[in-house]
Write a structure and sequence with these properties.
mainly alpha
């Protein structure tokens, strides 16, 4: 019994002396929540940072920095990979209000999230929403528009806007190297050496397999030529020996015709594969550009 009383008195003593210390250092106060959220943010633990920023907004009575925190929430969700969450969090800022100084930046983050989702038309729509106002057109905004048009395969439109961005970058006191890199990529995209299906088909009609040679599929070209040629030769031998009643002649003739026609069709399909490979190279470089350009383009202290 005496032993239990000692434990009870010890717990009371701890409560008496520790409670005032805890009250002086309230770890769940708005200020401490904000400090912890900032720590997570700069440590690139973005999803947890977004959660702490939200808790801060729920507990604070000071809303003077609410727009900055809202911007951080949207940006953290995007960088953390929660693109749907970033878009939903940006909804209240889709239309600028006089007291919301960061509306344009939040909308831009929403446009980036749509881009990363592959919703390029929505990304352009969000950008047009705030660029239609008297907001200064920044280089990163131009560049995101160019990136969207590239992903939509609007090569000439992308090049037109990229030229404007390049002119702005050259006249800027703080030129953006990414604008120059994006312009080079846009020029390359506008001059992609696409192959033509009709040309591949015509070549395969003239010489079996040559359509695939045209697209760089040399092994398939050789196989198509070999199969069609061997079948045609065996068919000719059969008809030469037994006339029109030759079973082997008809069998190999049918096979040869199938290889010949499939070679024509296959050469046109190979053109599609070739063109897709060209575009994928552009898109892969573009993804690297977007990840580098827009990761830290606008930081707050």
């Amino acid at each position: 019994m005496t032993k239990h009383l000692k434990y009870i008195f010890a717990m009371i003593a701890v409560g008496v002396f520790v409670q005032p210390a805890l009250s002086q250092n309230n770890y769940f106060s708005p200020d401490n929540l904000l400090k912890f959220a900032n720590y997570l943010y700069y440590d690139e633990d973005y999803l947890r940072a977004a959660g702490e920023y939200k808790r801060y907004l729920l507990t604070t009575n000071d809303y003077t920095n609410a727009d900055t925190i809202s911007y951080r929430i949207v940006r953290s969700l995007r960088l953390g990979g929660d693109l749907d969450g970033a878009i939903v969090s940006a909804f209240p800022y889709l239309y600028p209000y006089p007291l919301r100084q960061l509306s344009e930046k939040i909308q831009f983050e929403s446009g980036l999230a749509y881009f990363k989702q592959g919703n390029y038309w929505y990304s352009l729509n969000v950008i047009d929403n705030f660029m239609a106002s008297e907001v200064k057109k920044e280089l990163h905004t131009y560049n995101l528009i160019v990136a969207n048009h590239l992903r939509m395969r609007h090569w000439n439109k992308a090049l037109e806007i990229s030229n404007q961005s390049l002119t702005k970058a050259r006249n800027s006191d703080n030129p953006d190297s990414y604008s120059f890199l994006l312009h080079l990529l846009t020029q390359e995209a506008a001059k992609l050496p696409y192959k033509q299906k009709w040309k591949a088909g015509f070549l395969s009609v003239a010489v079996p397999g040559s359509g695939k040679f045209y697209t760089g599929e040399y092994t398939d070209c050789f196989v198509s030529l070999l199969l069609t040629g061997v079948s045609a030769w065996q068919s000719w031998r059969g008809f030469d020996r037994n006339g029109s009643s030759s079973k082997s002649g008809w069998v190999y003739g049918t096979l040869g015709s199938g290889f010949y026609l499939s070679g024509i069709y296959g050469s046109m399909v190979s053109v599609k594969r070739y063109n897709i490979r060209l575009e994928l190279r552009i898109f892969e470089q573009l993804e690297e550009y977007v990840d580098d350009e827009f990761r830290d383009f606008d930081e707050f202290p």
